[in-house]
Every structure is written in structure tokens, then in C-alpha cells.
């Protein structure tokens, strides 16, 4: 979701950069800037900071779970490897 107040501010700044001779249509120009900015940003695949943070937390939990599973598999492989060596020695 795009914060429209930021777009308004940016459009205002852009219209302030227009040469003095063209400033009669400043309000219209400001609206055009805002429309162009909204249109351009809407085409981008952006997410909100909140959505980003949620996905970041999910990724962190997933990474922690993966590391835990890797440790468990390593321990099981170690046990199986140790059991196989004992079985081999018995035969």
C-alpha cells in the first residue's frame, strides 16, 4: 500500500522545480505529477513494511527449524553409524 501523503509531498516538490513562467498551471501540474507517480508505483510489485517483516519472521522460524532438523539428522546418522560399526565387529 502506497502512502499518498508521501506522493503528495513528492508531487509538490516536483511542481516547485518548474520554471516560474510555467507555474500558472502549478496545481494541475502537481496533480499530473501525482498521477504519474501513482501509476508508476502501482506497476511495481511492492509490499508494505509490515508484510515484509511478517515474511522475514516466517523465514527466520523456518531457518531455525531447518537447523534443528539438520542437527537431529546428524545425531541419528551418528547413532546409526555407531550401531553399524558395532554390528560389523560382532560378525
From TrEMBL:
Q: In which pathway does it act?
A: Cofactor biosynthesis; ubiquinone biosynthesis
Task of the protein: Required for efficient ubiquinone (coenzyme Q) biosynthesis. UbiK is probably an accessory factor of Ubi enzymes and facilitates ubiquinone biosynthesis by acting as an assembly factor, a targeting factor, or both.
Q: Which GO terms describe its biological process?
A: ubiquinone biosynthetic process
**UniProt xrefs under InterPro entries:** UbiK (IPR007475)
Q: Which family does it belong to?
A: Belongs to the UbiK family.
Q: Which domain of life is it from?
A: Bacteria
A cellular component term, taken from the record's GO annotations: cytosol
Segments forming a coiled coil: 49-86
The name on file for this protein is Ubiquinone biosynthesis accessory factor UbiK
Q: Which HAMAP family match?
A: UbiK
Q: Which UniProt keywords apply?
A: Coiled coil, Cytoplasm, Ubiquinone biosynthesis
**Location in the cell:** Cytoplasm
